[in-house]
Amino acid sequence: MTQHDPLRPVRDLSRRRLLLGGAAVGAGALLTACTSNDNGSGDGGGEQVKAADSSANPNSAPGQKVVIGFSAPAADHGWLAAITKNAEAQAKVFSDVEFKTVAAGADAAAQRAALSTLISQKPNVIVMLPHDGKELNASGLEAMKAGIPVINLDRAFPDALAYRLQIKGDNYGMGVAAGRYIGEQMKAKGITNPIIGEIAGMDELELTKERSAGFAAELAVFGFKVANRRAARFTADTGQSEASQQLQALPKMDALWNHDDDQGIGVLAAIKQANRTEFIMVGGAGSKAAIDAIVADNSVLKATVTYSPSMASSAISLARLIGQGKGMSDLVELQVPKEITLASETITKENASQYAKLGF
Amino acid sequence: MTERTETAAPAGAAPPADRPSPVSPAPAGAPVHKGAGTPGNGTGRWSGDAGESFRRNLGLVGVLVVLIVIGIVTRPDLYSDMNWVGDNIMSILTLASVVGVVTVGMTFVIIGGGIDLSVGAIVALAGVWSTTVATQSYGAGGMIFTAVVVAVCVGLVNGFLISYGRLVPFIATLAMLVAARGLAAEISDKQTQVSNNATINGIASNDVLGIPVLVFILAGVVAAGWVLLNRTTFGRRTVAVGGNPEAARLAGINVRRHSMLLYALSGLCCGIAAIMLTAQANSAQAAMANLYELDAIAAAIIGGTLLSGGRGTIVGSLLGVIIFATITNLFAINGLSTEAQNMVKGGIIVAAVLVQQFRFKSLTQLLARNKLRSTN
């Protein structure tokens, strides 16, 4: 570091400051330009929407106007970002839907406050992805009491009176789908006692426990079990560090299930850094990057099991039907059912083309 | 030691440091004890200080040996393969590399009497800023430049708020933690930004002579940090400012400017760490480097850095980081849960601090008591 001499002539100091200042302004201008993420073709995957085609489906013909209020936590993860993006895009498809979104804030308390405001504006239907189903149960009840049907997206309310419709993914089913794919692959390869690794998501979440339980149960059907399980935090950097340690624990491995494709970027990086190729890997959620990797078939990633944010698009379509008092046209019932659980689908190289537009 | 630091307020709360008066002695470390690394006015009492930090580091090496022995006993099948053992050592060092670089900067800040809670957020912001589509179009050089400049600037803002805005370091860097993660989320639109740059990604996948590049970077930063702390005026001033800011000011050190530079230095380390972490994960996102501030502070503390400033070693901090990485590795190879691992980490932090307190209090107090007794 330079010595500071207070007796140094002032002129010298000002010249130095001028140079430093100039460099700082230049770097600042350059860096500000560097915050752009526009690659000319839009970011990541496209929105997952169902086009309104009234000739094929009379339900999508414009009808009574429906105001849909929407609330989801600020996205800190690709999946949540896709949820909000999908809901907005699906609402735009319908000319008879007015979409009102309120920020859910940082935690359950903030979301409760935002929802009270939303309820007082009296939308026809509310679609919400709560921070926590238990904590937002009261808000659901409040809206239902005010005569506004509530659609719960993915995080269930404990109280059946708090919602009109619940649409969610199947975490246990995800584990089952991953376990089945790995079981069948091992059987096809004739491996009777495979060494199986698992990189889970955040362990304090209920959904992680369900996924792992489904995985273990399905593997048990084949007589297999997990040899090593590490919990990452749904981010690429934690996926990388947990995977790097799991690879040390299992010098030879036959299969690996990683719960989440976002953290999977890091898991795949760790596998590449360790030069390991002897096993197959299954992902989770169904991101665009993962589907692309499966199609390219140049890594250990051979399949991914879905937990699709397309449920947000479906939730908006169903909210519109509920608002208009219509049922689902393929069903006999005149009203939309009360609970819908999406099946977890397995994406492999063979069927990836069908899912390419559903990747997020 | 404890008696002396009780009077040492954090640098941010220091009384206004006037411009050094021309008549004050040159701040070239003249009042600093040779080798001891602490400005002492007593004699004898401080002479054992260098030996003390050496003994402490030896203790950490002992902990490391114990951890490795536990590994050998619990997984003899793995440890019997020498190729695996070599791989595993590199894996532990690689795991320690990113936090290690952050910890070097953190050690300087803590020795200087401050604290930097924003390091994880700075790593995330620098990582995200350097992996935008626009930045990646400038290639590896542009990405490294962006990460380093962004991180140093954030560090300078921290330092400016603390030194000249008179904010308590805890508050200023806590605010920066929230703000920098917010800005990172804004820039990345909360998405994971994949790095497509082969040179950057290669930092994590390439080795030289069988040693990963990341480990070389860690070694380089640690060596530079050691020289800066122990062999330069800057390092001596850091110890002086953290130990007793008022005395440092009277000795002619520009305490405010020095504290500001310490936060910029921490920012610089975060910028380097951001590139390393981006390379490892092949991507960056606003939530990355989560809680690195706690890992870095914990490593510095078990490495013997005094939280109130004025004392600490780079080697101790490095050993602290390696111990944490070895614990993670030990739990992974035994297939134990992350929860149990975190509990053990917490236990080790408490134990390390207790041992340090016990040693120091008892040694100095014992000596004082014995002296008293013999004179009576």
From TrEMBL, chain A:
Domain Periplasmic binding protein: 68-326
Chain intervals for the UniProt region annotation (Disordered): 37-60
Predominant localisation class: other
Localization in the cell: Cell envelope
Keywords, comma-separated and alphabetical: Signal
Regions of compositional bias (Low complexity) in chain numbering: 51-60
Domain of life: Bacteria
Pfam family membership, one: Peripla_BP_4
InterPro entries hit by this protein: Peripla_BP_I (IPR028082), SBP_2_dom (IPR025997), TAT_signal (IPR006311)
Statement: the UniProt record of this protein carries the keyword Translocase: no
Family, as annotated: Belongs to the bacterial solute-binding protein 2 family.
Protein name: Sugar ABC transporter substrate-binding protein
UniProt organism field: Plantactinospora mayteni
UniProtKB/TrEMBL annotation, chain B:
Location (main, coarse): membrane
Source domain of life: Bacteria
Region Disordered, annotated ranges: 1-48
UniProt feature coiled coil, ranges: none
Keyword Transmembrane helix carried by entry: yes
UniProt KW keywords: Cell membrane, Membrane, Transmembrane, Transmembrane helix
Membrane topology value: Multi-pass membrane protein
Transmembrane segments annotated in the record for this chain: 58-78, 90-111, 117-135, 142-161, 167-187, 208-229, 260-279, 314-333
Keyword rRNA-binding: no
Cited CDD domains: TM_PBP1_transp_AraH_like (cd06579)
Compartment(s) where it occurs, according to its Swiss-Prot or TrEMBL record: Cell membrane
Protein name in the entry: ABC transporter
Organism this protein belongs to: Plantactinospora mayteni
